[in-house]
Amino acid sequence: MSDPANITLVTMDGTTFTVPSAYLHRSKLVQDWLRSEGDKQAMEVKHVTPFVLQGVLNFCEIHAEDTSEPLADPADPTKPFEADPRDDAFRGMPDDQLLQFTMAADILQIPELVRLTAQEMASRIDGKSPDQIRAMFNPDDLAEEDVDSDNEMGEVGEEGAISK
Amino acid sequence: MKIPTPSTSASSSSSLKAKFRTYFSRASSYTTSNYQPLSHPASNFSSFDDDENDVLMIDAPHCDEHEHATSFNASSSSSNKRPKPKEMSPERIDEGFFQKLISEPEEISRKIDFLSSLPIEIAAYIMQFVDLPTLINMCSVSKTWYSMAMDNETWKEQFHRRQGWHARLPPSGPAPLDINWKYIYRQRYALDKRWKQGLVDKIYLEGHTDSVYCIQFDEEKIVTGSRDRSIKFWDIGTKSCIRTLTGHDASVLCLQYDEERMISGSSDTTIIIWSMQTFTPLRRLRGHIAGVLDICFDTKHIVSCSKDMYIKIWNLHSGELIRTLSGHRGPVNAVQMKNGKIVSASGDALIKLWDMETGVCLREYTGHRRGLACVQYDGKRIVSGSNDHTIKIWDAETGHCIMTMQEHTDLVRTLHFNDERIVSGSYDQSIRVWDIKTGACILNVESGHSSWVFDVQFSATKIVSTSQDQKILIIDFSDGIDTRCFS
């Protein structure tokens, strides 16, 4: 039985992070897990790297004492987004890293972080010409096929799938 | 095996950077927690950038991975959930497997196309925050970006993001998923452009034989009250007068209606409650001792104000006088109510906020230099027009004047606002449209009326005004635009 005051998260490579459970009260995934499988040793967080999880947990720690009502939905129009200087770390972050945090926020279901990262991503695209966007994200017209092979790679877990 | 320690164990890690470096080079795992609280100097994840020290520390002997004989589960099957002591085997690292997951910036050589990488609802969510020109640019980035940017949901979000844009979807219309939001957006955008450019059709309704003091309209009809003592109903489609009601013994100065009833106030000092089914008077309220200058009602009360300097609250259903509010030192020209509060504007240059329940005056708004002619209150904001030629926006709560608009050249007789704009009419004969956020005058219709403007109301598609020139003016912005969804 794990310590109820703390929660241990394990990334897919086995790296563990133990933090006060209170940090993660805004994560729906963690809350659901605590309800259903809280008696287990540690919660696995697949598809999140230690680096990103560390950042996500830092975000959670910063906001652990926030008194604002938890967001049910990141798109809730009644709660307009306001930039918080405590989140400035996300502003200086490279695009691909920001993307990873967006995904992690989605996986862990933390609406506040989804909104923060999505806002930041949008502000980087805002006002850009098509060429500038291409330079940022390097998309190509085979993107649809990329998505397919990426999914396949996720399942197979082998590099070979990419070259298809 | 060891149970992960609950503490965040600064002791177990000499350097977080080193740990991650080691993680990436050895892919080992830890049985102690690796979480670095913010108090730790190396904990800020934005400081993870590579530097020489990191590289050097990879092989620093004090890294504690060796002490903990840790498991390597990254590529092991999911059946083995608990970390198990096991020999480290660097050769088992599947670099290809980690390629998408390694997140240190220097590890990723290619840029990631987020639209293709993210779950579609997150990508769509990001696009909500992008402005319209950028969205258009996104269309020509790639096929995927085009299809995302053209997605119906994206346009729905773009529509709802616009300040003051509301779509009124017909209840019997298409299923929500079949609504073409890009089409609706385009129609609404075109309508906005008309408002900005003043590309309008002007239509006049003629029939009253004297000044037209007051107006209200909806999708089907326009209702006006006049100095000729009559109230007229006009078909908004055919522009013809369909009904004339008489009952007041002097000018009809003010009116308000809903589906069931209409209330009108007159220079004859009385208020008449009319049936909107039979169009006959149901009740006549007497109590004011001078002309009834403005009225408003909700589901329970009628509030009236008069040249006699009083405000009266009446029971809507019984017609009984509930309370008289006194305090103004001049005629009370306009009254509004919302959420149990009344806002009144008087010739004494004051706006007052009253509690309906107690009749207590809660606040005064001082700033206008001359008498007030009109006021509107939405529960938060008060907008007022005065004989000092200005329009002022007030914060109802704090009493502060937020903004003053000073372009009319005579008394501001009437105004109407929503979240987007204010429309005002003046003795200077002009009708002006203002951006409520910036206070900028975005449209000035100078040649609409040939005398004082008495009342103005607007919807998403039109402005309707009345004047001493006996005419009703419809300024219609919607010609050629599909406005079925806007009101």
TrEMBL record, chain A:
One of its GO terms (biological process) is ubiquitin-dependent protein catabolic process. Residues 7-64 form the SKP1 component POZ domain. Pathway: Protein modification; protein ubiquitination. Gene3D superfamilies: Potassium Channel Kv1.1, Chain A. The keyword Lyase does not apply. Residues 79-93 have a biased composition (Basic and acidic residues). Residues 68-93, 123-164 are annotated as: Disordered. Residues 112-146 form the SKP1 component dimerisation domain. InterPro entries: SKP1, SKP1-like_dim_sf, SKP1/BTB/POZ_sf, Skp1_comp_dimer, Skp1_comp_POZ. Keywords: Ubl conjugation pathway. Residues 141-158 have a biased composition (Acidic residues). Component of the SCF (SKP1-CUL1-F-box protein) E3 ubiquitin ligase complexes. Essential component of the SCF (SKP1-CUL1-F-box protein) E3 ubiquitin ligase complexes, which mediate the ubiquitination and subsequent proteasomal degradation of target proteins. Belongs to the SKP1 family. This is E3 ubiquitin ligase complex SCF subunit. It comes from Jimgerdemannia flammicorona.
UniProtKB/TrEMBL annotation, chain B:
Signal peptide: none annotated. PROSITE patterns: FBOX, WD_REPEATS_1, WD_REPEATS_2, WD_REPEATS_REGION. Keywords: Repeat, WD repeat. InterPro entries: F-box-like_dom_sf, F-box_dom, WD40/YVTN_repeat-like_dom_sf, WD40_PAC1, WD40_repeat_CS, WD40_repeat_dom_sf, WD40_rpt. Residues 112-158 form the F-box domain. WD repeats lie at residues 205-244, 245-284, 285-324, 325-364, 365-404, 405-444. Gene3D superfamilies: 1.20.1280.50, YVTN repeat-like/Quinoprotein amine dehydrogenase. It comes from the Eukaryota. Residues 69-90 are annotated as: Disordered. PANTHER family: F-BOX_WD REPEAT-CONTAINING PROTEIN 7 (PTHR22847:SF745), WD40 REPEAT PROTEIN (PTHR22847). This is F-box domain-containing protein. The lineage of its organism: Eukaryota, Fungi, Fungi incertae sedis, Mucoromycota, Mucoromycotina.
